[in-house]
Amino acid sequence: MSSGVIWRRFLSRDCCNVAIAVALTRLKEQTLPFTVMMRSEGFDLLRDDVCMMSHRNKAPAVEVGIGSPDLEMVRGNFRIDDIVETRLTLDCCAEADGIIRLWNAVRPDVVVTLKLTQRAQQSALELRCSNPAFNRLWINMQSEASEAFWGGGEQMSYLRLNGRRFPFWTSEPGVGRDKSTALTQTMDANGLAGGDYWTTNYPQPTWVSSALHAVHLETAAYCVLDLTEAGRVGVECWSTNMDLELFDAPSLPDLVTKLSNRFGRQPPLPDWAISGAIVGLKDGADTFDRFETIAASGVAITGLWCEDWVGIRQTSFGKRLFWDWKWNAARYPNLPAHIASLAKRGIRFLGYVNPYLAVDGALYQEALANNYLALRQDSDTAYAVDFGEFDAGVVDFTNPDAANWFADRIIGQEMLDFGLSGWMADFGEYLPTDVRLFDGSDPMEAHNRWPVLWAKVNADAIASRGKTHDATFFMRAGFSGVQAYCPLLWAGDQCVDFTRHDGINTVITAALSSGLLGNAYHHSDLGGYTSLHGVVRTAELMHRWIDLAAFAPMMRSHEGNRPADNLQLDSSPEILSHFARMSQVHAQLAPYVRALCDEAAATGLPLQRPLFLHYDNPAYYDIQDQYLYGADMIVAPVVAEGQDSRSVVIPDGAWVHLWSGKTYGKGTHDIAAPNGQPPVFTRIDSNYADLFASIRTAFSA
To answer: Domain limits of the chain?
Structure first.
């Protein structure tokens, strides 16, 4: 048996007793939870004594096939279908030297090998197909009927994945994301832009089980997780070479730590990012007058975010940025002096960048001259992506020189050296599937890897300036491994409303699902982003989002895609006063949040956590509208329209209402929720009880 291979075989009845005794001793010494047990005409993949996959010649668990993608992309929105030409059940099985061979009796030339090996954090079932013509793989795994599953990257609609199919493909999430609504139907008719419950900027083929294990598909190919049948975990993958990674832990927090170890861990957020509000304005030269008015209202401010620092272009969607990533002096005259003045007051300046270059910009010409752009497949012409009324080139991050150029020339020189301390690192989901890349990789697989490459470019730029613990950036796009490079997620472009699948409530689901996979830090655009077809912010939405944003690691506002049509923080004295109050609450929480950041650095545990992460109660498995903020705080924001109170689930122990000081025990309680007092509770025995009491004293009135 080769080193690292984990498998078991039944001994035949005529084996001698000595051989049996030796085999049993070896099994007893085996402490690894995942093993393969050979059976008559098949095998079982076991976790301890529980079967996770059962393959028999008459009931195969593995199939392979040949398929051709039928795919259409319109500005980051995708329609994906598959034309399956061949699908073979692998109805023959044999094992030798720890390697299982599966094949079809009619097509013996198509062989899939399976080998279970042990790695640093996990076991891995390595699947390889001998015939390169076959490019589709289907696997049926088993589960307990009561088993719950979570994860899948950053999911917006459903925290618990049971009962649904989840394709893993990074894309625009869509507007509305509910096929039954007029908004989604209108957006679907206009460029496939409506989305669905599973569409997300950040998918990841990793799921966590209530049975204290996790599964990860180590591939960048298009995959689907099918949990539509109880007791079955179906996997479809558009590649026949894949590792099925298996994780095991004694508790869910330990499992999250293992996943964080596997995918990478973010550095702690800098103090300025967590100890006050980041105000987002994009008014060009008029920005600083507005900023001073907001600051004078008593807002605790540590950052000014101006995404339009690069200039703007007007489109039918709204004001878009000019994608030439450097200071636009016409729109922001004297910006260096403004940045220096803000710095003296302890206020950082933030901007915006994405991995594409507008064809009418100077940096595009620089990249073109150096052969740093992805090409068309049929020529040596640079590929131009339609981003909606303007085209942009794709900087080819599979070319190390191009990646280094972007990190140093753009982010290093034009941003960090210029004085920026942070930025939105947008997009990453748009890589077309018909480009030609420097490294020759299949763009169908490079598409999902692109957000990770983009995150690395940003992280490398910050590291090159020695600012890993001082500067930061935030991303919406992701895939497996983005955790190692992206220090902070944001929830993308929610509608400016309360709708079930694209409104304010989705940012909680996004934080909880991504956090279980090792993404410690998450936040959202305060006020939402997308305003189309008459959907505009209401005062109620602004107040509720202010309350929600105060209890996230970063509290950052956004003016949205159509600022003139929507309420802003300074649109009324009531909104601005409320924002000032909650920014001060956010700032006063900083010592607690700093401790959570330290915990995240040590363990990978996210700051925002589902109740079931610390309280194993099946009644909590579907709760996605409240969360633990660390282990010592429960936050239950109002995320439904027209409510002045809401029910809150309190787990074991005694919990103190942050605003009144009243103590609550385990159960479901109806809690009043006026603006400025979202239902928040703290553990009565918390080490930060004095801090929480000081907030109550200062802000309970």
So the answer is: 8-142+213-248
